[in-house]
Records
---
Amino acid sequence: MGMTLTEKILARHAGRKGIAPGELILAKIDLALGNDVTSPIAIQAFRSLGGAAVFDRERIALVPDHFAPNKDIKSAEQVKMMREFAKEFGIANYFEVGRMGIEHVLLPDEGLVVPGDLVIGADSHTCTYGALCAFSTGVGSTDLAAAMFSGEVWLKVPETLRIVLSGRPAKWVEGKDVILHIIGEIGVDGALYKAMEYAGDGIAHLSMAWRFTMANMAIEAGAKNGIFPFDAATKAYSDGRAKRKYEVVTADPDARYAEEIPVDLSTLEPMVAFPHLPENTRPLSKVGNVRIDQVVVGSCTNGRIEDLRSAAAVIRGRKVHDGVRMLIFPATQEIYLQAMREGLMEAFVTAGAAFSTPTCGPCLGGHMGILAAGERAISTTNRNFVGRMGHPESEVYLSNPAVAAASAVLGRIGGPDELG
Amino acid sequence: MSSDSEALRGKAWKYGDDVDTDVIIPARYLNSSDPAELARHCMEDIDATFASKVGPGDFIVAGKNFGCGSSREHAPIAIKASGASAVIARSFARIFYRNAFNMGLPIFEAPDAVDEIEAGDRLSVDMEQGSLRNETKEKEYRFTPIPPFMRELVSAGGLLNYIAKKKKEA
């Protein structure tokens, strides 16, 4: 019987020829990831196992990005524990402040995740790497500890939803809008326990940055993973970057899908997700008058150079509205440098925005832009849950970088076309 | 794990759909992984009374997609350390489901029961029998049996012990 992309990658890593949804498998991993929030619990668990060595010191990545640069003493202690563990066990891929970035942008950009991989990470947005035609999924700290020890993970083979993209997106419609539209259609548990596999000729119009954004938010529909087929764009991104030899996997023509969801990209508008769930989406034209206090551009969802270019193109030569704070977070040091070289940083700072070192920062209400009671932000991040960016009575609206930048100028949620 | 064969008993704390990990344990407290400290802030952003009033053995009862959002294991840790004995929901987000079993926090999918349970109802759960009794309303329900592999994890005492045991046998 034919296999989907996810089934094929899982089968290969479990040493199996065939595999079917619902089966429990023990699979070998290519990379395991932890951050400064999840690694401390994993490290304690690893030590409690009496682990004398990790399964492979090249195949573990530890990235302090959530509360780093350390926001307080407790965070400093957590990162210290990671740093010492990395040193003791010779972990090759520990990324210190100044060389680090937001994990899900950093690892693929560094070529540490490659097409065909099976990756687990103690972070829910580990599903981002599906953009590379890899299987990747978020797990907890105990799973990470076990994986660091054994190099394996138990997984239930998910059913696959096939999302067929057609048409070309209109101006100002980006990957973020496509995934927000899909989540709005199927709901925050619309893909619960399932794989979301993209197909169709519309994919050719999606840049790698947009695919990363879309795979990144698969978890916001409850999915186990999101995955794109390998094509010329994947090859162009991976060649010269991949640190390991990669394998091109294709879905079988007779693969079985739980459901097929068609999306015509040409009919989409920029989308905004209203509080307090990513499924509360409205097209930009139906947003109404929503005054804002803060704008955030960044995160593992939208902190790539393409995202900063999109926001900078809107903000260049304009000013951030008097009543608004605008915060920019390039996702990695490389992106930071690139933004500097291209003059994006200057465009933001001249407009009156703050430009930060890479960090997850306010996305999860950690630091660097926390909201007070009653305050409202539009953000290119991934979640708008109650209290996500600060006070439980604050509000977060999700959008693409161009809409976020236009809103910064307008002082209310709006699109670039309103700027004249 | 001893709780596998024990009957659980306590009162219901009722919540709605899509209870996310940010309200189970807000990120502002994730600079610690101390269970007692996490428990003090459990459910804080949707129910400020939960952490101080929850009694030993009590149940969190919720709608669909409980535990959606982050992979933070701090969420099941906080619930377990709060004294609650289990979570009963219409459905669970997948990472939370994994984490709960890996941590030894029992969770059950029981949609019919969830619909009829009200806050404060006295409940008892027999995990071996797969039954849930609402003592206040004098009604009994069956819940979705836990898959055999998950039972194996639980009987080994969680994922870490399971792995250690396998390593020893190898």
---
Amino acid sequence: MKIMVAIKRVVDYAVKIRVKSDRTGVETNNVKMSMNPFCEIALEEALRIKESGLASEVVAVSMGPAQCVDTLRTGLAMGADRGVHVEAAGQLYPLTVAKILKSLVEVEKPALIILGKQAIDDDCNQTGQMVAGLLSWAQGTFASKVVLDKEKQLATVEREVDGGLETLELDLPAVITTDLRLNQPRYATLPNIMKAKSKPIKKYTPQELNVDVKSDLEVIQVTEPPKRKAGVILSSVEELIDKLKNEARVI
Amino acid sequence: MIKLMDKWRITNRLLNHSSKLIFDRRLSANSHNSVFRSALEYSESLVKRGFGNASTIRYRCFGSEATKFERNAAFSTLNSEDVSYFKELLGEKSVIQDEDVLLAANEDWMRKYRGSSKLLLQPRTTNEVSQILKYCNSRLLAVVPQGGNTGLVGGSVPVFDEVIINMGSMNNIITFDKGSGVLVCEAGCILENLVSFLDDHGFIMPLDLGAKGSCQIGGNVSTNAGGLRLVRYGSLHGNVLGLEAVLANGDVIDMLGTLRKDNTGYDLKHLFIGSEGSLGIVTKVSIHTPPKLSSVNLAFLACRDYFSCQKLLREAKRKLGEILSAFEFLDNQSMDLVLTYLEGVRNPFSSSMHNFYVLIETTGSEESYDREKLEAFLLSSMEGGLISDGVIAQDINQASSFWRIREGIAEALMKAGAVYKYDLSLPIEKMYDLVEKMRQRLGETAKVIGYGHLGDGNLHLNISAPRYDDMIFAQIEPYVYEWTSEHRGSISAEHGLGLMKANKIFYSKSPKTVQLMSSIKKLLDPNGILNPYKVLPHSLSNH
């Protein structure tokens, strides 16, 4: 059984986000880029499944500019067996990504696709659901626990929902998207970084996969959230009541 | 030098004998003019003598901190006229007598040293600092300048009843020149605030330390703080381009230049860098800040023995030269401690424990080039057997968790119980010998851990015990200082002397040098009101 994992290159989680001065998007020049944290969790889960003997191969897929190869190398250093890079220059929206993934499924024939539940840059939370829809596969989103049964070709997925846990049983092939508490991703060790250098990364273009990257969505403007105003220290309860009454007008 | 040291030891012994007397006087008069720092023996004798509430004396016994000496009788005590004067000068709000605030300001963050000051002043301008000092000097009121109070040697808290001059209200950034990278700001600016201010302009502070969230730049400069970036950017003696300081008599000395090069006469600003507020109060600083480079990589490595760490450092300097920005080490015992006492910290290595760990950070301008260079270096070091295992941070989050291990050691030590801290500069090849020697001396009675800035030859030797114990202390001091002195090291690499090591200065400086320091102190602060009992030995500075 083969597992395909989608990984996205995003502005590092710890970087302070800045909006471009022309308000067309977020500044990515000279900014540290890393693997989307949810994708790291997805890859870790795939590697654990493989290590427990339930999968034979883990293929990491990334889409975007040439530097996505760096992110793929990180994935390979964590332990993925192969990489696939779909090189595309412009902005890719979830539906396009889902279509590309669908085309890759036809080439790679995995029994399971694992993705992060969302990317921390656009917070779309759509790709996993869309790819499941396009493939007509079962889907288990926001997984906090995954158990595979190879004999019955079943995946049992626990998901955190309001007020408790929901358990789903999915027939394979299936799509799983991962939540934060599923696992703790491993570090890339030196020997594995060395090994990753010789692992193959296959390149495609969207055209080769018969996907049109044109989107119906258009970003009109990106702006920063309003700045939080500084607080004030009051000297008495009377003053507080006065402020609540006359300034905030809440009492 | 030996003679002087002996002399000091004898004085110390004499003072030890008289400690009982001092203590009795304190009890009867309930005055604060005797030493506050109570040794274990005090509370024990209290219990023996039937003073049931010995537990209210909650000073911790620290051996070296249980220095017994008396308040300098030449200093005046604060009276209500003084307080009214300060209220007139600064306004009610900046003259603080609130007990809770004073309790916090009287004690250092490790809760090792505690004074009994009754007054804290918060000046907002250089002129106010000047007026305060002018008045205190004329009245012979001793003062202690205080920044973030994050020091480790008792330099930032009063010893007796010194007036605390808190610099936190002078926290304005005055100018920043994007072209030259020169930042001019007031002394009370918190380091982390400066870091985030500079970050918006694409620059960084040339120093970084664990206490950045509380420590202030004036304190950093006054103590010549070192930290994690020293190996790359050098010490504050190089990065501080100018400063403004107020002398004991209230004179404002404007040395606030912003030039990289200025050879006109004696470069007096250096006197105020690292003199721990004993020569003047730093009120403004101008600092040269380097541009923020976009590519930072961090590797956490395991080494078999200390010799490999040393060799790795030599190789790293040669092969990573221009991008090397930190080279830190910790031993297995430090790692153990962090994993035991800090929540959420995990060992980056899945396999067995290693003997030593090294953090190598590179900072450069080209991500892929730096990365390739670092990887190539690490792989060849691994093949050469210098590294037994290693991980490279793949994102900032992973990098922070590696740093957390190194920076969390001090915190883990605090949680583990009593700790004797030593901050030593030693020749790199000898550095770890001392840790092993201490382990032999102490055996099972205490845990000895070693870590520090290997790249700068700076060892943090820490001895962790369940509780403070005179027997353990006797095994540590003066041996640690003697050993350091014998190997021509420094007994204070970056923490300063403060109260803890004022009398130990001779282990690292010759009598003539100390004598000259004392003359400078007398010239700039003839009445000795600035941060008394600290930095210089009491035999020279007190009366």
